[in-house]
Design goal:
Length: 884
């Protein structure tokens, strides 16, 4: 009870500091005046003399003020304020060291903070919806599927209707089928929008009211009801310029017309980044089980219901379905997860990758601690005097840590600002290059946990930077200094700290710079690419959208006869595009080469089943001719190769050199490594092409090309070489495609130069980031290595003087100085080479870069030893023996 009363008094004193000090001043003045009056009356002193004697008798006022502050528990605060002021003065006193240290800390903090924010957003997505943590996703997991990571069954229309009727722990169950719409307005505006066919309950689920108009209703979802659409804010701006009169207007969605009935607020894009929503208008009665459109099912936990209750309820329904329909549901089990779910092994892996960045910050801080240790040595007498006057070891260490906190706070502030700008810019460029939009809940700002994490990094850095010198400065060396004040030289030594820091610094440089230089070289476009006339090409995709969803029988035919008709239709589109006025040539590829392209593993025949990676694209026979590449050996694709089913391939010349080690690629055979051994077809290489790096632009080079077959025509990228400006062809191409068939549309139509530009900006951004980070690290490494070696040698001045007085040969002295320095440099080079060996193994250019960086470190070490060694040799032995 007494403790609580004391705490109350302390809190009143803490938050009422001004009033408490005013009351104390009044009381002191009152007592002094009363004592002065007594002296005037009893001893007959003059008022001035009486006041002087009263003040002397009362004592120093500042002592009472300090005691009151101690009583409030704030003595440490005034001490900390003084330590921080001293730290700020130290920064101003050594501007070069401050700038280099702050920039190095900023780089380390920016890297750690950026990755922490990315991991935090991935593990704990912040969905801006009411009670978003209660929104859940239901999916059927196929326990018999071979791939455990992708074993869900999305064709769950029958199950969705059963869940909607029976589940009580989840309300507002919604089915969502994602689709891409080619949208055209009445006045000819067109756009390709990411859409979703949804049940109207979605709008109750998200609890977001439309900005204009109304949401979808149950009447809209009835089969045969007039088609309506709700637009996203960006789509409304693009198609109607933000005109409120858009409500009630008609738009064409693929082959159907719809009436706009609502516009959603800015930033809304449920479930991911959708821009238009139409009613699903599907009934399970039209399909067999495990047939029909692919859907996602989401809902909201009912009031009072928990996720565990929902899982138990769905498990019972799943077991009942497995018993009733064993032919389709024997291995299906419904699974409930949070919509904004985080965690999982992916989140843990991403979070774990922050550990190397944190260790990098620790290394930088330890390097700074060693570097600033030299400055601490110059204050050895000050520290010894403070200790002699009664300052505890803890108080001295706290002072040094507080002074370091000023430096780390500056570095953390710079790093936080750099992370905020760099993360936003980097993610914007990433999604632009990937031709994607991020999920609507993505916020590239910095969260509160990230700011707290940054503050923790600043404290950690200060503890290392100030704590290590503080521990060494107040250890045995200080006791020796106090007991033998006349001893010459400093008792403080680096010991193994300097060796460890120098080795780590050199190792990081040797490991980082070769990889960074090679990465930057890959990102910088070469002359061939920059000279390619990308501005003369128009590229885009042709979309085919069936008017209605196919029944199971129709879906089967779509893979057969209907698939052939679609291929013929798209061939006709291609022929007409090539014949358009202003089009010099036309060709197609399965995708935009060099962009968003996965690596395919290929098995080389007769080469001990060797597996090599390659980016593989299917192209038209005239692709290389239209794109300005040349066949250097073998032959080009023939017009009949696609239709005949010939398993032939043309490979890039640079890829062939790496894959076949200088042997001729013509006649070599390969097959897809992950295909079934019995069904995998062998492809024969019939040609080698050069000059395709220019045609695919700044993206990742493609290694293997195969003929584009009719079955692949449903998803192709077209290229048109224009006689004049390719932008002028856009309305013409759109009109041609949409007039040929109502089910056709086009997407992502743009000059090839516009497609390349985000990649070029991204490459330039990351190249600049590598250059800035590398330059700062190199500068700090040079300063650090030079300073540490110089100080290590300077510490041996007394030893050198004694050895010189004893007649040691100067050459032997220099050799002993250089031996230790170069041993540390050599260990660092060995460490860095071991770290980078996995990256550049077998790469002659990488090995040359490692050697170049290692030679640079040797030169730095030489400079770090030569200057102080020559200075030490010029000192007379008698002077060296008197060095403090």
């Amino acid at each position: 009870m007494r403790w609580f009363r004391g705490l109350g008094v302390r809190l009143r004193l803490l938050f009422g500091r001004g009033a408490a000090e005013r009351r104390m001043e009044e009381e002191m003045r009152f007592h002094i005046e009363m004592e002065a009056e007594r002296l005037v009356c009893e001893e007959g002193l003059s008022p001035g003399e009486a006041l002087r004697r009263a003040r002397i008798a009362f004592g120093g006022r500042e002592r009472y003020r300090e005691e009151m502050r101690d009583g409030r528990g704030l003595a440490w605060l005034s001490g900390l304020r003084l330590d921080l002021k001293l730290g700020a003065r130290q920064l101003v006193r050594y501007p070069v060291l401050t700038a280099a240290s702050a920039l190095s800390l900023a780089v380390a903090v920016a890297l750690a903070v950026s990755w922490f924010e990315f991991a935090h957003d991935f593990a704990r997505p912040r969905v801006p919806l009411d009670e978003a943590d209660r929104i859940v996703t239901i999916r059927n997991r196929d326990l018999a599927a071979a791939d455990r990571d992708f074993n869900s069954e999305p064709r769950s229309l029958h199950d969705f209707e059963a869940w909607r009727a029976e589940v009580r722990s989840i309300e507002d169950l919604t089915a969502i089928s994602l689709i891409e719409y080619a949208v055209t307005t009445e006045d000819g505006r067109f756009a390709t929008l990411r859409g979703a066919r949804v049940t109207p309950s979605m709008f109750r689920l998200v609890r977001v009211a439309p900005l204009l108009g109304r949401p979808l209703t149950a009447a809209d979802d009835r089969p045969g009801a007039p088609l309506v659409a709700v637009l996203g804010h960006d789509a409304w701006q693009r198609l109607f310029g933000g005109d409120p009169a858009a409500i009630g207007r008609a738009i064409r969605l693929g082959s159907q017309y719809a009436t706009v009935v609502g516009v959603m607020p800015e930033g809304f894009g449920f479930p991911l980044n959708q821009e238009v929503w139409t009613p699903l208008q599907e009934s399970a009665a039209r399909y067999a089980r495990r047939a029909g459109p692919a859907i996602r099912v989401v809902g909201r936990l009912a009031d009072g219901a928990t996720l565990e209750q929902a899982r138990a309820e769905l498990a019972m329904i799943g077991q009942r379905a497995a018993a009733q329909f064993p032919e389709t549901h024997e291995h299906l089990r419904p699974e409930v997860t949070r919509f904004a779910r985080g965690g999982g092994w992916e989140a843990r892996v991403i979070a774990a990758l922050n550990i190397p960045l944190l260790l990098f910050l620790v290394v930088v801080s330890a390097n700074l601690a060693a570097l600033l240790f030299a400055r601490t040595v110059t204050r050895e007498s000050e520290i010894a005097l403070r200790s002699a006057l009664g300052a505890s070891r803890r108080r001295i260490i706290v002072q040094l840590v507080a002074e370091a906190l000023v430096l780390t706070s500056l570095g953390a502030a710079l790093g936080l600002a750099a992370a905020r700008w760099g993360l936003r810019r980097g993610m914007d460029l990433f999604f632009e290059v990937q031709q994607m939009r991020p999920p609507f809940w993505f916020d590239f700002g910095l969260s509160a946990p990230t700011v707290v994490y940054t503050a923790a990094l600043a404290v950690l850095g200060a503890a290392i930077i100030g704590g290590i010198p503080g521990l060494r400065a107040t250890g045995r060396a200080l006791r020796h200094r106090l007991s033998q004040p006349g001893a010459g030289g400093s008792g403080m030594r680096f010991g193994t700290l300097a060796t460890g820091v120098i080795v780590a610094q050199v190792g990081l440089c040797v490991a980082f710079f070769p990889v960074a230089i090679m990465s930057a070289r890959d990102l910088i476009p070469d002359r061939e690419v920059t000279e390619f006339p990308a501005e003369a090409y128009l590229t885009g995709r042709v979309l085919y959208q069936p008017a209605t969803a196919a029944s199971p029988g129709n879906a089967q035919r779509a893979r057969g006869e209907e698939g052939q008709r679609v291929a013929q239709l798209l061939d006709e589109v291609h022929r007409r595009l090539a014949a358009q006025p202003g089009v010099l040539a036309a060709t197609r590829a399965s995708r935009l080469p060099g962009f968003n392209h996965p690596v395919t593993e290929l098995e080389i025949e007769g080469d001990s089943a060797r597996i090599v990676g390659a980016r593989l694209v299917a192209v038209d026979p005239n692709f290389f001719e239209v794109m300005g590449a040349r066949i250097t050996s073998g032959r080009a694709f023939r017009p009949d190769d696609p239709a005949s089913g010939a398993r032939v391939a043309i490979v890039d010349e640079a890829w062939a050199r790496g894959a076949f080690g200088g042997r001729s690629a013509i006649g070599q055979r390969f097959r897809l490594a992950d295909a079934d051994e019995q069904a995998a077809d062998w492809y024969e290489i019939v040609g080698v092409v050069d000059g395709m790096k220019a045609a695919i632009g700044p993206g990742t080079p493609v290694g293997v090309y195969v003929p584009l077959r009719p079955a692949q025509h449903g998803s192709v990228q077209f290229y048109l070489r224009a006689a004049d400006e390719p932008e002028a062809l856009v309305p013409q191409v759109h009109a041609l495609v949409t007039s040929m068939d109502a089910r056709l549309g086009i997407a992502d139509v743009a000059p090839l130069d516009d497609v390349w530009r985000p990649v070029q900006r991204s490459d330039a951004y990351f190249t600049a980031a590598l250059a800035v980070v590398g330059a700062i690290l190199l500068l700090f490494a040079l300063i650090g290595i030079y300073a540490l070696l110089s100080f290590t040698v300077a510490q041996r001045t007394r030893e050198i003087g004694i050895r010189a007085a004893l007649g040691a040969d100067p050459k032997r002295l220099i050799l002993s100085i250089f031996a230790r320095g170069f041993m540390q440099i050599g260990l660092g080079i060995a460490l860095g080479a071991a770290l980078v060996s996995l990256t550049v193994a077998g790469n002659a250019e990488g090995l040359r870069l490692v050697g170049g960086v290692a030679a640079g470190m040797v030169v730095v070490g030489l400079a770090g030893c030569v200057v102080p060694a020559l200075r030490a040799l010029r000192i007379q032995p008698a002077e060296a023996l008197r060095v403090e």
